[in-house]
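Hello,

I think I submitted the nicotinamide-adenine-dinucleotide job twice by accident. Can you confirm which output corresponds to this input? Input:
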Amino acid sequence: MELKTKLFINGKWMDSSSKERFKVYDPSDNSVIAEVALGTKNDILEAIESAEKSFISGVWSGLTIFERSKILHKVSDLIGRYSNELAEIESKDVGKPIFESANIDIPSGAQTFEYFADMAVDICGETIPSPYKEVIDYTVREPLGVVGMIIPWNFPFLIACRKLATALAAGNTVVIKPASWAPLSTLMLGGIFKEAGLPDGVVNIVPGKGDIVGTILCEDPRVHEISFTGSTEVGHLVMSSCAKRLKGCGLELGGKSPALVLPDCNMQETIDGILFGVYLSQGECCCAATRLIVHKAVYEEFIERFVEGSKNIKIGMPLDKDTRMGPLVDKKHLEKVLGYIETGKKEGGKILCGGQRLKESPFDKGNFLSPTVFVNVGSKSRIAQEEIFGPVAVILKASSEEEMIKLANDTSYGLAASIWTKDIKASHRLASKIEAGTVWINLHNFVFPSGPYGGYKDSGIGRELGREGLLSLTQTKNVMIGLFEPGFKWY
Ligand code: NAD
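Support: Only one job matched these inputs. Its output is below.
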């Protein structure tokens, strides 16, 4: 299968103004699966103009909330109708097992549109207490205008759905730039919006180079807000670009999330939950549990069973239903992860399993890496501090609850954490001391459209999803009505 895709601007599929295309590869064998139109400066400017015109015209923000809600529900239904095609393209593009894309990414995308379709009718202002009985004061929540969205390659469909559903529910129009390694499912959304009856120009999709089209999106004054998900490094650049125009930006960035294993945990449930926490989507997951902090009382048992579980994960082709771990997204990314494994060895780390690229058939042409577990690593070592973004876990030993908390917070990141215990009091006590935007107790990697998601410290600014995420893409207007009787004079 080789697709040729175009840019989606003002409701039409268009070639790039330079006619250039870039190749998208299947990570399981590095064959070309698509040639995608490469958005240029002219294209992104045209997309911004289209989004601005459609915002000003009121084709979307001027609809009643019930009309908007109805179209967003239709988008959700259509994602459901095309779920098989979407899951297949997502797995081919990113490399994640079809088991995951069919059961997590695509249905969660549909659920996100459903949730925000309902939330659209619940965006309310307030009646404000007035010091004058002749003045009525109330607020309304209005859309921001054009929202620019920049997304990563690891959960491209789901992250696009989260951002789009929220911004559209609030009445904004959008220009979205997918990541170059995995743009296909986001482009498929263009067809879905068209079929759902979303007016032309409300959503514009322009793949292109981050430092060119991404920067223009951040700096153009017609774009009122940037919603960015990606690395902390690029997050800094995005914020600097936005600062030039005093533009708001929501930043969902990287992580190095700890999982704290207490002595009283249910060991089998903990192993199963943390395997999911570490290896979901090949570990290419912002909130992956990659710093495992295990109490010394259960350290040996945990290691033995966790390593056994890691070895048993079924690596395979992404479209095989039995596969539980596919290839990493791109050759370059595989090299980066292998580089971290070498660094870990040089830092004195001991590998208990994995650590190797799979070179035998049928994996030889792809970017497959076996699940990798490190011990004998200090908390300050690079592999325990930096985001590796692959199936690599680091296990640290702790002697007390205090030490577990200290280790959990000993990184610059603060996206998420999990605590594994049967003791409800301990879980509550530890949760309050962890510096992270999400704390899971006896689970990991669960994100709902209804719950706010985002990071402390270097993991981001702002919250996506939930009521908080929705309101962050609106602005408040204070309206006052004077009802003074005739003849009333100030002077
Ligand atoms: P990345 O930062 O390299 O790229 C993200 C996006 O930014 C891409 O679309 C890229 O083209 C664009 N970009 C690059 N340079 C730019 C610039 N100068 N200006 C504007 N845009 C630019 O990240 P990635 O490798 O695609 O994704 C992996 C990262 O994303 C990881 O760090 C991961 O933790 C993070 N992530 C975070 C969350 C979250 O919710 N916190 C979710 C998923 C992924």
